[in-house]
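Quick one - first record:
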Amino acid sequence: GLVNAYLAHVRGDARLPDLIHSHYGDAGYVAYQLSSLLDLPFIHSGHSLGRVKRASLLRAGGKDAQLERMFRFSRRIPVEEDVLANASIVITSTKQELVQQYGLYEQFEPKRAHVIPPGTDLSRFSPPDRRSPLPAIAEQVDRFLKEPRKPMLLCIGRPAPRKNLLGLVQAFGEHPSLRQKANLVLIAGNREDIASLDDTSRSTWEELLRAVDRYDLYGHIAIPKSHRAEDIPELYRLAVLRRGLCVNPSHSETFGLTLIEAAATGLPLVATASGGPVDIL
């Protein structure tokens, strides 16, 4: 559908683009077809790779048949092989991604790969002025907490199995002395009604809320329903002021943008030894 729609679009244009840059496997599939039909080079950035994602979800306890229904790995992985075989250049975020993740693919050619790490905006992500009042987002966080001034463990990530938010809540819930010392603040997208979310996000949130109840984390964990883009730097700064940490518990992470955002604000980092965080730390 996208291929035909784009072909119809370019018929009315004065000139074709010089190249195509695709992001993620599905876009790579479209770019590969357009590249062949229009005789254009294409660059590919995978961001998330099927072989890596499948392996990490299986290690986390996922079942093969269920994962296949959700993610169609039997279709996705061969398409990714085709994309890697035909892309003029592959852009990766870290050396670890290039060697250990793309290296799982038979058609990947390291000589056609370039490492270009993402950056962050230092005018937005900067350390707090300790003389300033607490940022406004503190009110949204503190209403969940019995003792809001305790050190703040901050996790920012999408409600997706790969991000392992459930594992973080379970680890926090199973560590009584950690609950005494710190609060957990979980920022996992915006939600009006969990029932209206897509299947993956909804099931992730349902598991998270069941874990909060199972471990009786009320008063120890903050899970705001919404935030604005401008609140994210303020959340890092709030965690600095509360003597906290940024936690990235992902099973696999191609890069880990939250880590360099946290570092830019002066917030210490904790991450799993997987993917981009290895290079970042």
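second record:
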Amino acid sequence: MKLNEALGKRKFVVTSEVQTPLGDDSPEQLVDRLRRIRGRVDGVSVSDVDLEGVVGDSIHTCELLQRNRFNAIYQTTTRDKNRIQLQKDLALAHQSGIENLLVFTEDYRITGDSIQEQMFFHVDAGKLSSVLQHIREGRAIDGEKLPEPFDFTLGSGIESLWGKKVPKQGMEGMETLKLMGAGYFLTTPIFDLEQFDKFMRQIKTLDVPVIAEVLLLRNAAMARFINRHFKPGLVPEWVIQKLDNAPDKHKASIELFGDLARGLKEICSGLHIITLGGEDKLQPYLDAANLR
């Protein structure tokens, strides 16, 4: 079933994320590691990677996933791309048979309500909106006619840590993304189900499916690394302590995921698993949460 069909039928959607292979790792090896979960996830997103000038071919990886019966999701950001580059990438994705697009309209997600963050969002959202409008009408941004109009099932990242206090600017940003054609929102990582439920009640009027991001944390060291290098306090201390004190770290990791996944089934439209390099270890986690 295609991702847009699953969303349209309001089934609980399960997606995951992988990074474009770099160095000695090949896209074929990545696809091979995912074979065990084929048919159990509704989509696999492939993120752009630019590490010290080495750029991964995420569209080629998406193409391989498609050929191996996965619903590939081309994931990109608008931060470092002008409209010409963005249009070029989307046209290449379309030519490669990719139907799903996940876009972040700034560094990470819509965050806060400072003037600087508002400016980043509005500039990037406007850039994306312009390109999408043109390709849907079969026109390039310079006015030239494209071979055909095309579109994607569009997902967009949002901030979800506000709880019941979603600021006005945050709501307006999500409304902008909806008007742009977002078929679903992808949240920041979720740990607190009660807080997330309050957030979901706030944005219910938008009537856009929400997929919750879940980190697959295999040990406390991984959680501390995320807090130290990505976002301080992102992983709550109680999660770190559970992983740290458990006699069986693997079992504790699976229990954390299973409890969170079962709770999310009652709150939102699906979950998106960030494997942190553990895509070949997903099967027992899906089993624990009874996810197909």
